Amino acid sequence: MGISFTQPLGLLLLALIPLTVLLARDSLAALPRARRRFSLGLRVVLLTLLVLAVAGTQVVQSVDNLAVVFLLDRSDSVPRAQQDAAVDFVRAALPHMGERDQAAVVAFGSEAVVDRPLSADHTLPDVASKPASTFSNLADAIRLGTALFPPDAQGRLVLLSDGNENLYSAESAARLAAARGVRLDVIPLSTPPGREVLVENLDAPGQIREGERFDLHITIRSTTETSATLRLLADGSLIGQQEVRLSAGTTTFVQPMAAAGKGFHTYSAEITAPAGADTRAENNHYSAYNFVAGKPRVLLVEGHPDEAAPLRQALTAAGIDSDVIAAADIPIDVARLATYEAVTLVNVPLPALPNGAQPALQTYVRDLGRGLLVVGGEESYGAGGYSRSLLEQMLPVTMDLPSQLEIPAVAMVLVIDRSGSMASPQGGGGALNNVSKIELAKEAAFQAVSQLNSRDSVGVVTFDTEAAWAVPLTKLGDPAALRDKIGSIGPGGGTYIYSGLAEAVAALEKSNARAKHIVLLTDGQSGGGDYPGLLARMSTGKITLSTVGLGSDVDASLLNSLAAQGGGRFYNTLDAGSLPAIFAHESHLASRSYLIEHPFTPKRTAPSPILQNIADTPPLLGYVGTTVRPEAVLALVSDSGDPVLAHWQYGLGRVAAWTSDAKGRWASDWIGWKDFPTFWGAAARWAMGTDNGGGLQARVELQDNQARVSLDAVSGSGEPINQLHPLAAVVPPAQAGAPVSQSLTLRQTAPGHYEGTFPAGAEGAYLVRVQAGAPGAAGSS
Question: Rounded to two decimals, what is the model's pTM?
């Protein structure tokens, strides 16, 4: 037993006791002697107790019970035989515990997990925990083990490991454990001597130019002289294989290479040794990455075939290379998008983009500093379903309609399949996995109705073997009033498409609306019906039809034919979760509320670098109505003051919105205009910005599991630039789902030098974009 103080400096207050005695002589002089002594003694005792309380007096009593936590290394660097030997060691130690002793087991690899909590049990079953084994995280194991100790027991850690840590630092964790009075014992798990062949390094230059020649340096280490097979892959494809002779120690091979196409490229070296010459396969491969810089390149994403042809010709004439793909083929991997300086969406409806495309574009622009151009058309912006989407968040315009716009009335009927198969779950994983198709169809119907104007007419027909009206065709009024009626739709029996269509056509033939449209949704097949006669009636009544096939069992040929002859669109989707966007898109197209078509000549309202070399512009025949954001630059407007060209900075990147089209419908005079290439070349170059960081030089170095980002800022005269505020955007290797980026602030550590670190535990290429700015200056690298 002993006494300790948490605040020992408080004991200095004991110096007040003599002063108290001195002062008491005068204040207690009138009291009898006995009472004076008692009062003085009581004051001294109370003052002493107060001082001891201030000093944090503690009575420390030693305990003889022990808590031991065994830390078992289960990483790949420890052979299975050694892992089993570690478990046997723990089993042999447990019977020697005292009556009040306890033991716990922590298994660790990339992370640490408690396999057995503190217990007085003298037996140990098999270790059931299986932490990820690609890394050895000794630090996490020590911290977790230290946290398990109770306050009333002596603590001891027993680490059984080969010591080959490659995640964080065990040294700092051990110091913290020692500061808590925890003893750390180490039982080395030495790897038995054996024959080993491994790829020690693959060195590739970080950045090169397109067509440039370079060398890959492959370093192989072997414990003995042997032969092996060396394979080299580029971007996942085998480019070379040879039999090599390895000496004991390291052997370096050099592979001459020529830089492939522009963008990120991966290289992998794999070594295969004969049986008995190699112990572990985990270290038999190594990867490296580089970036090939070249001419500026733009990705043109078109909503319909050949719509991007005029733009591509204009960019080519402006000296900018481009690739054209369909909207469904846009990459959702940010690393693939990053091979382009800018992406241009050409009349792309939102439902045409695959899942994951919007988050990828957002990361591409906001975090990597690339450019996005959005070119209009009759199926873009609000008419393309951009409202309340990630894409709308990125744009310098919103989908709010101009207040002065006169909107024609529309009559629309939704024809919805309610057969028994529609009661089945959506499936396919994700948040909507267990939601039935009929429920998603009802939500889609309500979304479509909500997009219409109160003056419009709407109806909902359901069908199985026969048709029935869920919502008779009538003026919309308040959309909320229809939610209960739409919500009451339930699944039925078979499928007879013709019955539902016939009811819709009959009702629309009686309507006086200027636009009449039908949207058909089905997940199955149907036979019979006088479709030619029905289509003839639709043509006479100026009724259009779009069809939506849900799932792989639909009669795509029939639905496509009906949509083509009905003057609408055919959607074939496997994801019922996309139905609300499709139905909303059809509502906008049916009402044509966003489309403003009449001749006008755009007017300039603000200086813009895109128009710097443009004098006068030709007339346009139409555009899609939008509303400019207050923070954006409004460069061109229509005769009504609506946005035609607007642009702004979005995160680290740039976004421009052109609300007219780039084809013969609205921009026929522009396509033949002599400055058409100049205009679109300037727009593309503005969106791309510049990759020249000026006086900024950024580097990324990998140290174990930590990536260190450093930035050197130097002025044109060679002087260091201080007091910047550098920020790095880090995009990890592509994983399932949307990419998740993180921001990293770089701190100044020397004149003109800034640093920051982030964990790099995942295998693959990290994309890092650094931007630095100070009042009145900015740059990126």
Answer: 0.53
